[in-house]
Write a structure and sequence with these properties.
The protein is α+β, with helices and mostly antiparallel strands. The chain has two domains: 2-121, Beta-grasp domain (Ubiquitin-like (UB roll), Roll), CATH 3.10.20; 124-254, Alpha-helical ferredoxin (Fumarate Reductase Iron-sulfur Protein, Chain B, domain 2, Orthogonal Bundle). It is built from nine helices and seven strands; from the N terminus they run ββαββαβββααααααα. It has helices at 30-40, 75-79, 124-132, 152-162, 169-173, 175-179, 186-196, 225-229, 236-254; strands spanning 2-7, 16-21, 60-63, 66-69, 104-108, 115-117, 120-121. The strands form two sheets. The protein has a five-stranded mixed beta sheet with strand order 2-1-5-3-4. β1 (2-7) and β2 (16-21) form a beta hairpin. α3 packs parallel to α7 (186-196), α4 (152-162) packs antiparallel against α7 (186-196) and α7 packs across α9. It starts with a strand and ends with a helix.
Length: 255
C-alpha cells in the first residue's frame, strides 16, 4: 500500500504531498503508518498524538477525506472500504491530489483550522469557542450535605455528551464552520447542551442563552456530519435540534 501525506511548513509557496510505500502489518493503524513514515522516509514529518497519555483526541486528522482518529483507524479495513462514512460533501474535503482509495491512504490536516506544520493544526479558535460557552458546572447547592444522587436515566442522557474528547473531528466535518468562521461549532454547542440537561444545575441558570446568538444554535444547518464522524458517538446535531426547540418554545410562551 501507499501512504500519501500532506506536507507544509512556513515559507513554502504551496503544500505538497509525499508518498511512502509500506507493507501493512495485521492491525496496523494510520498512526503506526505515520511513525513508519517518520522512521524510514522523513523524520521531519510533524503530527500530534498523545495516545496512552490521557489526552485522547489529539491525533484527529483527515484520513481518506473523513475526519478520524489516526490511532484507532486501521489501515486494512480502510483500504477494503469497510470504514466509509456517508458525510455531506463540502469544499474542504474536495479533491486535492489524485489518489486511489483502494491502494492508498491519504492523510491531511483537519479542515477549518490553520495549518502550523504538516498535520498539526492550530486549535486556538476551537478552544476559544469552547471557553465562550462557559462549560462550567453551576450546581443549585454548591455545598450539599451529602452526594448529589442522580436518576440512572438522567445519567444515561448525560453520558451521550460527557463522552466528548474535544478532538475537533466534528469541527473539521462541519460545512457551516467552513462557510462561517464565527460559528461556535458542534463541539461547543454539544457541551453546552450537556450542562443544560444536567439535573444538578441550578434552575435559574439558563444555559441555552449563552449560545442564543446568530452564530450559536441558529447558525447550524443540520447537515449531520458531526454525528457521523464523532469517534465517541456524541450527537451534536441532536443536541442542537433539541436546544433550538426548547428556545423556540420558551419564546412562544413568553409572547
Amino acid at each position: 500500500m501507499k501512504l500519501r501525506v500532506y506536507r507544509y511548513h512556513e515559507g513554502m509557496v504551496s503544500p505538497r504531498y509525499d508518498a511512502f510505500e509500506l507493507e501493512p502489518s495485521p492491525g496496523m493503524t494510520v498512526l503506526e503508518a505515520l511513525f513508519q513514515f517518520q522512521e524510514k522516509l522523513d523524520d521531519s514529518l510533524a503530527f500530534h498524538y498523545s495516545c496512552r497519555g490521557a489526552v485522547c483526541g489529539t491525533c484527529a486528522m483527515l484520513i481518506n477525506k473523513v475526519p478520524r482518529l489516526a490511532c484507532r483507524t486501521q489501515v486494512a479495513p480502510l483500504l477494503k472500504g469497510n470504514l466509509k462514512v456517508p458525510i455531506f460533501p463540502y469544499p474542504a474535503i474536495g479533491e486535492t491530489v489524485p489518489w486511489d482509495p483502494e491502494e492508498e491512504v491519504l492523510v491531511e490536516p483537519l479542515p477549518h483550522l490553520p495549518v502550523i506544520r504538516d498535520l498539526i493544526v492550530d486549535m486556538g479558535i476551537f478552544f476559544q469557542y469552547y471557553r465562550f460557552i462557559e462549560p462550567v458546572f453551576r450546581p443549585s447547592d454548591p455545598n450539599p450535605e451529602k452526594e448529589r444522587i442522580m436518576d440512572p436515566a438522567a445519567v444515561e442522557k448525560l453520558e451521550a455528551y460527557t463522552n466528548c474528547i474535544l478532538c475537533a473531528a466534528c469541527h473539521g466535518a462541519c460545512p457551516v464552520v467552513g462557510q462561517n468562521p464565527e460559528y461556535l461549532g458542534p463541539a461547543a454547542l454539544a457541551k453546552l447542551y450537556r450542562f443544560h440537561i444536567d439535573p444538578r444545575e441550578a434552575e435559574e441558570n439558563s444555559t441555552l442563552k449563552r449560545a442564543d446568538i446568530p452564530d450559536g444554535w441558529w447558525a447550524c444547518e443540520l447537515y449531520g456530519n458531526c454525528n457521523r464522524v464523532c469517534p465517541k458517538g456524541v450527537p451534536p446535531r441532536t443536541a442542537i435540534e433539541k436546544a433550538v426547540a426548547a428556545l423556540n418554545k420558551e419564546k412562544k410562551e413568553a409572547e
